[in-house]
């Protein structure tokens, strides 16, 4: 791979990063707050590629006879005696992430990833949670509900009705569970937060279906077979299927 080919691949890679960053596609890979850094990285790649192409395609200095040293014969091959530089072929591997971003759009982490990893709330903790905001039902994230249900045993929830949105995944007892993936940085470190469901459990839906459930705190606890962590339950009063949200990660 010569310098010009490297620059073209770099330009495509930078363009692919920018395309993902200015659309919602990047939300499948990283947290929302990383968008400015992705845009900056994409711009740097594009600028570097353009500068490399300009440097390689500009008129060669050897076109000027005065630029050729007197003690070095002009071979007609850029002063290198006909021996060009050959860059490592491994550079072509850079085209793979470009194709991945431009041609393939893998889905966000879902039920399969949730079934292969233990629930993220596996470390006991003590914390004073603030009261839930006003509203009936009050909208909370799957992570917030699970933390309140586990770490203060629902004290901060009380008898309030809560509304949660997540995707369906099949639990170890073959019953549907509600889950949401949480990220520390990017999809590579994604971990699921899982909730057991009782009461009016969503039925007849395939895994990865997104639902909105309304219910109340349940004292029931289960165990995650992957890491033996406690899984809180939600007593569902009603539910409805909803479209896949733009932000799929908590």
TrEMBL record:
Listed InterPro entries: DUF1980, DUF1980_C
Domain of life of the organism encoding this protein: Bacteria
NCBIfam families from the UniProt entry: TIGR03943 family putative permease subunit
Protein's UniProt name: TIGR03943 family protein
Species of origin: Micromonospora endophytica
